[in-house]
Amino acid sequence: MVVKSEAKLVTLKINDQEVTVPEGTTILQACQTAGIEVPNLCYQPLLRPWGSCRICTVEVLGRRGGLVESCAAQVREGMEVRTHSPEVLKSRQFILQMYLIDHALDCPTCDKSGECYLQDNTYLHNVHLNPYRRPKLAKPYTHLSDVIDYKWDRCIMCARCTRVCDEVIGVTAIGVLNRGLEAEIGPAYGTDLREGTCTSCGMCIAVCPVGALTDRRFGMHPWELDATETICGFCDVGCTLNVEHSRGIVRRVTHLWDRGVNHGYTCERGKWGYAQVQHPDRLETAYIRQGDEFVAADLDDALDRVADAFRRYQGDQFAALASPENTNEENYLLQQFTRAVMGTNNIDRLRHRGQSGVSQALRDSFGRPASTNSMQEAFTDTQCMLVVGPNIGETAPVGSYWLYWSRNYREAKTVVVSHDHFPLCDRAEVWIKPPRGAEARVIDAMARIILDAGLARPAESASAGFEAWRASLAQVDPEQVAAEVGIDVATLRRAAILYATGGVGEVDGRDLADYPASAIYQTLGTDRGADAHPAAVALNNLALLTGNVGRAGGGVIAFRGSANFQGATDMGCEAGYFPGYQPVDDPEIRRKFEAAWLPRWNDAAVPQNGFKPLRELPATPGLDLDGMIAAIEAGQIKAMYIAASSHEYSPGIDERLLAVLPKLEFLVVEDSFPSDLAKLAHVVLPGAMFLEKDGSYTNADRTIQRLRYTVAPPGDAQPSWWFLQEIAERLGYNLTYRHPSFVLEEIAQLTPIYRGVSLPRLERGPLQWPVQPFGAEQSVFLELGDGLAPEAVRFVAD
Question: How high is the pLDDT of residue 511?
Fold first, then answer.
């Protein structure tokens, strides 16, 4: 267990209330801790103090006191603070009057009306007359991009927008142009925002405290909207979204600061991706193939046809593929249906080559196909970050924000190994650009340098396979690898030493155990066409070599693209494992699931076409996706149920699978959009998307979160769990869950790593598995033996 030294505490008085906070806390943060509201305009969570708006002014009593900006002034022992003294209020009123000299008073038509910080504070401080007047200056809207407008005469020059763009998003797409009265916000360096580095994340709009930067797609007022807090379904970072909707239509996504794994920050997909949910091309009805044509069908008729067909394929003639974007509950039910109703372990996720390689590498190295650490450790412990794979700014955007934040605020070091060129490459201490597929060679060369420099420190409990792996490195020549990549060996050595020493750099004589932690962020699993296994294994070995597994701020965080790929894996959508990575060939485990699942058979069910109630679960592992493709080709698998999630951001379908699916006798596809996969189906079922479901998701770092129903799905579209229950009932198997919450309760009972999880508990906030009981300290990283079998952690010679 890692024990962190506690920060020194400081006690002060705020409005005669004693408050104790860590040293270095600002007065504003101390006020927030005590539940005392202090107005502010330029302060923004996660951004450095700015102190330009002066609205957060408070009074410090005593000889060293006076009026200070609470967002920038730090607390002192014994300090006494007044937040609403007469002097403070007078100061704030004067500042507001200064702002209102040129500020447009078009509140009734302003997009920000009802949630404008300036409007709120003007009312709060009773500023109804302004002795400082002149004819107002005004300018027309400036269209910065297809989604962003700028209104100069509303802008208060708080620089929130430019700071978030630079310090968190890391692209510096906008800046403050000119000075004084001519200052305005615009594209940095004179470039067109649509042609520069802007990622269209919309964070500049989100942090603007007034109506200066506005959403061109939004034309309503906040009091017209209902809001639902839920989880984004477009990547496996798992961001919390505040989805605002009216009359069943999503109007915009806003931000809940300091909430969720994203702390309120979002990317382009999170901000604007709701357009996919209400896209006019969504599937709204079931379709049945008649010859070469698809005919719209009544949903009950389509489900009857599915059930009648499935009766002929019980056993290993059947296979299922789960969507890595469906909820944990839906994926749990699909694997249960496959095993307990159809009598086969032929179940896998709908995945591509990159996801497969990374998952297998994690299992080979750590015994579980899961990340070892949490993204949140970037805020507290990580001092060096090794980023490997495709552009993390596109594949896991909000995950990349914490890398920029750690560099800016904690002076963490960054090493990038990527063929892609993205903003982090230009800010990193070292950027190595290997040819595609050569990442493993670079990582092995770094490992060889670390070994030769005497910086290896593998934990004794994680040294299995070490000697064999070290012997395999004998053939790795760092100078040759550097030449292949097109860099000098000194650059390669610098990258290796920075990682091995937690960003310290060249060896300085300290004990190896005293070096800070280094984390690996890898996006290899998002590259659908590459074999990611060699590079992923090399990275896992590197983390073990430097003692960064089982250490806060270290380990490996693997992004694999799909929103719930980790959850689908946890739920047993694998040929050889029940939920929670419990082997299907273990008799004791199998009996546990038989006792839970098999009593659900309806005793009145009549065997038809060889279909009959099962009395035991299949005992041997089934076929994974690769095996299914071969079995379809050979005519051994004849029917399939595929849960897909086609949309603009989906990772796509394996071309090998699409090539063999026409050979099936019967194919059911559940999807949200017409797709190449749906065109091959015999029955197409219209699936709901993430904003139309209840349940839970598990993100890339094993964090389980609450997904909430926001708007109704279009037409006859339904969530996957509803389809599975309807089909199972027609086959004589009673799946009668009234709500996904009951499914999650069963998951928690049967799956040790999810024990204690429930939707009511997730209402309090996210949980990271293995989940601790109530009252216990939640584990934020996988220690050796904490959720992992120690003997499963090993070096692997790929």
Answer: 72
